[in-house]
Amino acid sequence: MDLVLCHTTADFDALGAAVGLCVLRPGSRIVLTGGSHPTVRDFLALHRDEYPLIERRSVNPQQIRSITIVDASQRDRLGKAAEWLDLPHLSEIAVFDHHLEAHSDIPATVTQIEAVGASTTLIVEKLKNQAENSDTPFRLLPSEATVMALGIHVDTGSLTFEGATARDAIALAWLMEQGASLGVIAEYVEPGLSPQLQDLLREALNNLRSETLHGYSVAWVLLSTESYVPGLSSLASRLLDLTETDALLLGNVYKFSENENNRNIAPESPVSNRLSIIGRSRIEGTNLSELFKPFGGGGHARAASLATRDVDPLLTLNQLADELKTQIPHPPTARELMSSPVRSIRPETSVGEAHRILLRYGHSGLSVVDAGDRLAGIISRRDIDIALHHGFSHAPVKGYMTPQLKTIAPDTLLPEIESLMVTYDIGRLPVLENGQLVGIVTRTDVLRELHQQKARDRGSSAKFSDCPVPESVEQLLRSRISPELWQLLSIAANLAQQRGWQLYLVGGAVRDLLLATDDKLALTDIDLVVDGKCGSDDSGAGVELASSLQKLYPGSRLDVHGQFQTAALLWHKDSPFGSLWVDIATARTEFYPYPAANPEVEASSIRQDLYRRDFTINALAVRLGVPRSGQLLDFFCGLLDLEAKKIRVLHANSFIEDPTRIYRAVRFAVRLGFEIEPQTEGYIRHALASGIYYRIQGENGRAPALETRLKSELKYILQAPYWKVALQMLGDLQALRCIHPSLELDRELWRQLRLLDRCLQGRMKEEGSSATDSVTDVRKKEEGRRKKEEGKRKKEEGSSATDSVTDVTDVTDVTDVTDVTDVRKKEKGRRKKEEGRDYSLFPIPHSPFPIPHSPFPIINIPDWQMRLEVLIAYLAPEYRGKVAANLQLPADSIKRLEVLEAGKNQLAENLPKCELPSQLVLLLRNYELPVLIAIALQSPRKSRRQIWEYLTRWANVEPPLNGNDLKALGYKPGPGFKRMLDDLLAARLDGNLGDRAAAISFLAERYPQN
Question: What is the pLDDT of residues 297-356, one digit of tens each?
């Protein structure tokens, strides 16, 4: 264990330097050796979970590997933790400080004490140097940059103290580039006041008037001075902090003479009263600039000022205070912020089991309820860690939980919740209704709400430190979908609200709404999530809501999947919805019992539901129904990634848990024109290189994610117009190993796929048909082609068999698969052409295996399946059938792949013996067409030409006479008919028969009648 020690009564400089060291040395933990400064304590009451802090009592001295001390160089400033410095097994003791006058008595192996304004500056310089010399992108988290910037601001007086240096300024500027939050810095930095302002501060505190409305406190005060006082803005900020007021109007009335600013005016010029008012507000929805505008003032929504004269000062100030109170919105309540249902345990649950539950669900604490489901206490992760440290994994949690709790009601307002958390240093507040635990509000809930309020105030121009969160997208959604669909969503939201639930539009529909540039958005697949508890029905809230909707829309079909607490409403060719799929699910969390498994799901909150999703751009939700209809939920900065065109995964183990997300990442990247961000790509490569999927397959016998779910993703990609680029990206990531560990997209496999693509396109050109032509249309066109060809037969007798058809037997421009960029450039031009083309069906002649003598009928095989079979066929023969069966391909596809090698060997032996067209036809007609294509792709060029000649020229040639003709000529039906028709076909193929009369003569000569 590597520890970073802060001195007793830690200030922001010590905390900032410690956080920076933890970034430099991942895995290090911070110990506050003896309390902290009051402002630091208040800061950590809200932000503690964002930093790797550990209690001193939780440290096992024997596990300490190294110790680093920041902002101190003397033992007596470390409290009892100084004893650790004498441990004999320590590998390193380092000191980073900026107090040159102090004499160090610490036996340090590494020391850096330099004349800078803050110790944090020394650490920031190291981080900046690492970022500039790193081969991979480097960026601090906003919380890390903010606390380090606070350290420099506080210890240098915002660069105004005598000890501040240029190095501090450079470090501070770099932290601002890294996303340090100026709002948080302003909240915790304490600028000094002049003696005059200190006197006015005392006067303001004595005369301040305040009122509380909707949980927010509004204060106002009027100060009278002889003349104008500079620096009143600092006084207003200090007054706001000291009184913990949410909004403040500070007025100052003073005497003003025109000759003070203009010497040309006579000395006897009249003296008038001037009134200046400075406003500060922390309340979302208030706008001081608009409030002051009628008096000629202005500024920002949260900070503004005005200066006027010849008015009644007190009356004007009171009038403005009343108008400010009308601007205050109703703040969020606990019911809107809380997570529900709450994960709870019994008092008898062991510490070890509680730890397992925390690990499974990623919580930082658990509620403890008695047999009557009444709240008995809360146990935090810290409590459990300490119990485990002392070897009490078997002990019941009731001995370690906190029994006396602060609780809140569902209608408790956000300001009161925030105040409770800061005052009592509480990380979570249970929500009780009629004595029952209905939810819990955590620090994260409060911080997120406050953060989003600030982000909305600053607008969407903020970068890195804030996610741009539009206040509402209701109008955008309503304007871009049909009125009928909007009515459906509104009805669904009302039904949910009647049951005490909240409904959200989630996932791809929200993403596409925000990306759309057209006025209208055609949605055919909509995901809705219900956040709320269902009664006795185990199928969940989503199923109940879907059932209620189906009664109002009887034209829809209801599909229920109780195992996953989901239901779907489907319309097919309906008016006005057309073909529409609405999936309605209960908000749920997922747990993967092992990598690549099917997830186990449980009811949860909307936040947990969004966290289980694949990428940040798909983890967006829009609230439907009051209150806050149209509110956009963006817990993971998906908007920033939409703006930056990045595919970013939500957590590091995402691809370990579900390998199909690798294919989804590629699909979204290519389809949307985005890039997979570097860290996400690193997670992909790590998951693939680990070999975890096949190790799990060996241990458990199967990996469900690599079966039908993988096939579905392959289908989405291989049937898309952009399949070539997507497949190249998968090959570059070596993601085809998900199909089989030995499968890689090398040059030969890419050549075969390109050959297949030309084959499919060549057939369409040859037949003159589109992929969606009916079988009858294809046959009519084929019949016309054959008649036309018959008239040209004699002219073509001496020509090459492939001169009259598209030559797809070779690819001369095979692209090197290692250069994905080149492929993307080449495909970019093709994509627009292919965008409107539907290759979902592949009409090809086919006969049962083996084929009897008859005209080739037409079958339909999807293009994506043909491409997938080519991928599988590239594997060693012994793996093909197993892989196809694992992907649950159709039985005929599995059989084709199993017999492919035998057919390939037979044709390799017999094709060179075919000198006449008739020999070629009689050999190849015994093979199913997809098998022939697969064999051709793996065969030498000469064999490919023979197979292609058969497919495009000879396969549909028929004998000049049929069975009815033979009967009309007097031949008796029987087994001999087949032989006679075969001979007629062979003679025609070889050019030995001309017209019908020649065929009759041929029969008379070969098969004379008695």
Answer: 877 778 788 889 889 999 999 999 999 999 888 778 888 888 777 888 999 999 999 998
How many other β-carbons are positioned within 10 Å of the β-carbon of residue 522? 12
Band the pLDDT of 592: cuts 50, 70, 90.
low
3-class SS of residue 379: strand
Pairwise CA distance, residues 796 & 951, whole Å: 17
Question: Among 601, 623, 620, 600, which residue's Cα sits nearest to residue 610?
Answer: 620
- Per-residue pLDDT for 399 more than 60? yes
**Element spanning 248, H or E:** strand 247-257
Q: What is the pLDDT of residue 405?
A: 85
Q: Which of 160, 157, 240, 228 is nearest to 201 (CA)?
A: 240
* Residue 659: strand, helix, or coil: coil
76 versus 867: the higher-pLDDT residue is 867
Query: By three-state DSSP, how is residue 862 classified?
Result: coil
pLDDT of residue 800: 35
Residue 679 structure tokens: 């860290």
pLDDT at 792: 44
Cis preceding-peptide flag for 1008 (omega within 30 of 0): no
What is the rounded CA–CA span in Å between residue 62 and residue 335? 46
Residues 6+ apart with CB under 8 A from 113: 73, 95, 96, 97, 98, 99, 100, 104
Query: Going by C-beta distance under 8 Å and a sequence separation of 6 or more, which residues neighbour residue 1004?
Result: none
Share of the chain residues as helix, strand and coil, in percent rounded to the nearest 5? 50, 15, 35
pLDDT tens track for 121-146: 999 999 999 998 888 778 899 999 99
Angle at CA 161, nearest 5°, toward 244 and 201? 35
Secondary structure of 535-601 in HEC code, one letter for each residue: CCCCCCHHHHHHHHHHHHCCCCEEEEEHHHCEEEEEEEEECCCEEEEEEEEECEEEECCCCCCCCEE
Please enumerate in sequence order all residues whose Cβ is within 8 A of that of 198, keeping only pairs 6 or more positions apart, or say none. none
Closest to 1006 (Cα-Cα) out of 963, 954, 966 = 966
In this prediction, residue 596 carries a pLDDT of: 56
Could you tell me if 287 and 303 are in contact, meaning their C-beta atoms sit under 8 angstroms apart? Answer: no
Identify the CA nearest to 254 among candidates 277, 288, 279, 237.
277
Residue type, 674: F
Q: Which helix (H) or strand (E) holds 528?
A: strand 525-531
Instruction: Identify any residues that bridge with 113 across adjacent strands, giving them in sequence order.
Output: 97
User: Rounded to an integer, what distance in angstroms lies between the CA atom of residue 797 and that of residue 439?
Assistant: 85
Separation between Cα atoms, residue 23 and residue 139, nearest integer Å: 10
pLDDT single digits (tens) 861-906 = 888 999 999 999 999 999 999 999 999 999 999 999 999 999 999 9
Give the pLDDT confidence score for residue 447 in this predicted structure.
87
As a whole number of angstroms, the distance between CA 731 and CA 750 comes to 10
**Over residues 666-691, mean pLDDT:** 92
Type of residue at 486 = W
